[in-house]
Amino acid sequence: MPASRRYICIHGHFYQPPRENPWIEAIEVQDSAFPYHDWNERVTAECYAPNAVSRILDGEGRIVKILNNYSRISFNFGPTLLAWMEQAEPRVYERVIEADRESRKRFGGHGSAVAQVYNHIILPLASPRDKKTQVVWGVRDFEHRFGRKPEGMWLAETAVDLESLDLMAEQGILYTILAPHQAKRVRKLSGKGDWADVTGGRIDPTRAYLQRLASGRSITLFFYDGPISQGVAFEGLLSRGEYLAERLIGAFSEDRREPQLVHIATDGETYGHHHRYGDMALAYALETIESREDVILTNYGEFLERHPPTHEVEILEATAWSCAHGVERWRSNCGCSTGGEAGWNQLWRTGLRDALDWLASAVAGPFEARGRTVLQDPWGTRDDYIEVILDRSRGAVGDFFARHATHPLTDDELVTALQLLELQRHVLLMYTSCGWFFNELSGIETVQVIQYAARVVQLAQALFDGDFESEFLARLEKAESNIPEHRNGRAIYEKFAKPAITDLAKVGAHYAMTSLFEDFGDQTDIYCYTVTRQHEQVQTAGRARVIVGRAEVTSRVTWATQELSYGVLYFGDHNLIGGVREFQGEPVYRDMIRTIMDSFSRADFPETIRWLDKQFGPLIYSLRSLFHDEQRRILGVVLDQTLREAAAVYRQVYENHTPLMRFLADLGVPLPRALLTADHFVVNHDLREALSQDDLDLARIQNLAEEARSRNVDLDKADLGFLLQRQIEQRAERLQRSTSDAALREFIALVRLAGRLPFTVDLWRVQNIYYDILQNNYPKYRRRAERGERDAQEWAADFRELGQRLSVRVS
Predict the structure, then answer these.
(1) What's the predicted TM-score (pTM) here?
(2) Distance CA 118, CA 20 (A)
(3) 541 alpha-carbon distance from chain centroid
(4) How far apart are CA 416 and CA 424, in angstroms?
């Protein structure tokens, strides 16, 4: 068959569940992702970033090419993941967006990026209203990021029904991708032939199919190749790029003359996170396929334009790619899970969904009724609220309500309108599919959706009459955990959701406590809040400090604001107590400062505590009350002083007994534990300090490392390697900005040092920068060198040596 009739497409579904704390709109530290801060950061390092700069190696393991895989595959990213990536990993984000631009040039104007329903809910289980919002938000988010209308849209878990397809078609979506077992029957588009039963995954996946819809609209469906997709995910096809390329190319039928599309769909995390170096196998397979003349690499949009459907299909409704029982995985104990201990079940899924369905229904009527007092069309406004989610600036929000409000809104009405819409945003977020996907009710993904529900409850009880929490918890209690200590959904809510609930007073307390350790300006952003300091007074007595002040705390999400006064007493170490209350007026505030500061100035701490308790009681805030990341940071500050004191003791032992330790080492006599501990601490401390300097002393670093080697000191290799990695990356960035001789010498000196030190340095990002310089700057020096310019010859020679050390082949 001629090449123009044989096509290959690889689709990657890149997605992580939203992990942000619902009250601060930020991801807090997740210890299970160690050594990374959180799972988004970890999966980015293992998958999303490597696929943006994936390596092709030669037979000697040297990099010969770095490719952006996204530009040559079909892909979708979850909108909530991209929102996080835009802020936390802007380099990777830009490469994803750039890949879509590149793919349009490669694939006849058709971008490879595909939209996704907004926050990955199972559409067949959603209300018609929620389905529409999810599709609209997914389309608008895509347009905002990629600067074009999406041609395709990915359904969460490929969970499908006809109503969802119709809503997608209504929004201009041309196609989606499904699993082969989701097809029911097919026939030729002419309608002249009989329907053929293709249940059980028997559909021919090599063509596009038209699904007719009740509205008169239609949508194209692509059913991916199930066996090859399974092979990629679970059967080792990514162990070598050749295996993947051969399997894809070998899937064509030699007997057919009509166009064939061999295409697969897998979780994007397969390429690097689930299978280490899977991105490189993918890159090699793509490179192999593109080098052949008998096949064409394509994406769905290009294939659809060239070869529209010749057959129509009817789907099996309420089915998904990861459940053998339709969509039961997201509402019942169907048997599909990710494992767990013997005897575990997922009966909790029913109780969880029942509780959330009740809550969503309970707030719908009050939302509509209260919403009509400020919004022309509450539900239509919710569909458009994605505009505010994407741009929360004051100007954008003002323009939004100018279009949707019933009248010019007062400040209080603006807060009400934003709170109503935020309530609905969290109603949608609490249905994120990951809450049901795994094996246990207390898992982090399920706790996340319960926290979203807690945010709905908090907003509902502030906006509407009635006790929403009691009934919700009564229903949630029916969801039973597999782990006895967690009991049920109510207990998990009380243990993991309720302590996270935040209001403006808690933000004020956080600000007050962190003020003891950080010099804030008059205006400070704390996550999604802005704190404006109006007055503050601090006194110090030895290690003890007291701080009293007042500030205005404003949510940048709902615009709610509150003026607070606060007082905190710090005893040193980890001991502090404090309180916050609504500002009571200037006379009361001045009297409070006078009494508290007077008792503290006399070092009468019990009296200070009594006055604080009288003014703010009960004194409920301590280091435990801080948001987790700040809590860790401040504990680090506290521990730093303790470690400095310990370091002084260790250094004294080390310096007094260094000759003895060297003598024992020469004789091969093991050091006593006390001396060994001092030796380990001081050498690691000195190396860490030397590697943290702006102006590195390379000789000292080398000597310290040699000293450690000679005495068999156990180095903190991961920590030290990371410090050197950061230094090398900084030099690489300097060379990228200015390819001067000095910048090159500094860069190469550090890379040489890394090769001599007894710990591993991750040079992945450095290789990326070097490769960019190789492509964009090196040719200029090479041409000058060929003309006999000596300085250019020396520069090019040094640069080639650097490439050798970084395992990059330089032609």
Answers:
(1) 0.93
(2) 15
(3) 43
(4) 13
